[in-house]
Amino acid sequence: MRVNMSVATLKDTHFSILELAPVRDDQTIQFSLHHALELAKHAEQLGYRRLWLAEHHNMDGIASSATAVLLGYLAANTQHLRLGSGGVMLPNHAPLVVAEQFGTLATLYPHRIELGLGRAPGTDQVTMRALRRGRQETEDQFPQDVLEILKYFDDPEPHQKIVATPGHGTHVPVWLLGSSLFSAQLAAKLGLPYSFASHFAPRMLSQAVQLYRENFQASKYLEQPYVSIGVPTVVAPTDEEAHFLATSAYQRVLGLMRGQSLKLKPPVKSMEHIWSASEKLSVNNFYAMAQVGSPATVKAGLEDLLEHVKVDEFIFTCDIYDTQKRLENFSYLMDIKNAL
């Protein structure tokens, strides 16, 4: 489905990064957290618009579970890069606690902190129950919880019984995240920016973006619709090297599908002896939006994507095993944009 309503170009499209602090199979979690800061500094130097952290739990290959804490570490050691959550899984948390955490960050680092909110648990059912122990909230309460957080960030009303301190008056920008049509519709109704999780669930991308744009209602938060989409990337000097490096990402997704370790593994020459035909198809569907190849190949792929889906921003992920080549991936992407 083509939803492009005007000509969009890579030059006019903002570039951002979604970081999950991936854990390598030969390194410590501390190494991953330090690398997340290295990436944030790199992104700031390159001119990326924002860097977000994703909340996941009980996954041995993802070290960004304590999202607000890690954001504080990144913010304290960078200067101007916008930092946020992509996202905080709201059903796992009391809205007041989220508002206080991000209100604290916004007070310490003004005009740099953003809050992306998701309605999924970001984990398995057993872990979800552990996170929500003693709480009865469900995804059905997501719209009410979003409104509650927006109120906490606003200026308090007279005689308001609960005031987020820190938090009130910080006006932290709130985004809604989603991989289906629900959050797209809610973001449009509330007049909030919207980010679609096409980096792992691309199937409903076109429908969600179209629904959001067609139903957007201007608000005090946003005058015009603004949408970003997740794009997995593996960029290297040649197509051949990029496809080789991408096998680390394929093994990671395969581990997710098999219920195995999500730690990053070294790239392999061929995946044929690792996955079955059906697993290969599932991984390819998972990574349908992935841009893998040389800078020229990825440039063409991103331009093709913009022709089919009108977006304001790409938020890139990357699961390259070698940390230096991972940093270079984001350098190549910004080189593509700057060359225009």
TrEMBL record:
Name the Gene3D superfamilies on file.
Luciferase-like domain
A GO CC annotation given for this chain = cytosol
A single GO molecular function term of this UniProt record: oxidoreductase activity, acting on paired donors, with incorporation or reduction of molecular oxygen
- Identify the stretch annotated as signal peptide in this record: none
Task: Identify the InterPro entries for this entry.
Answer: Bact_Lucif_Oxidored (IPR050766), CmoO-like (IPR019949), Luciferase-like_dom (IPR011251), Luciferase-like_sf (IPR036661)
| Pfam hit, one | Bac_luciferase
- Tell me the ranges covered by the Luciferase-like domain, including all copies: 25-304
Q: Which NCBIfam families match?
A: oxido_grp_1
Q: According to its UniProt record, which protein family does this protein belong to?
A: To bacterial alkanal monooxygenase alpha and beta chains.
Name of protein: Luciferase-like monooxygenase
Organism equals Acinetobacter baylyi (strain ATCC 33305 / BD413 / ADP1)
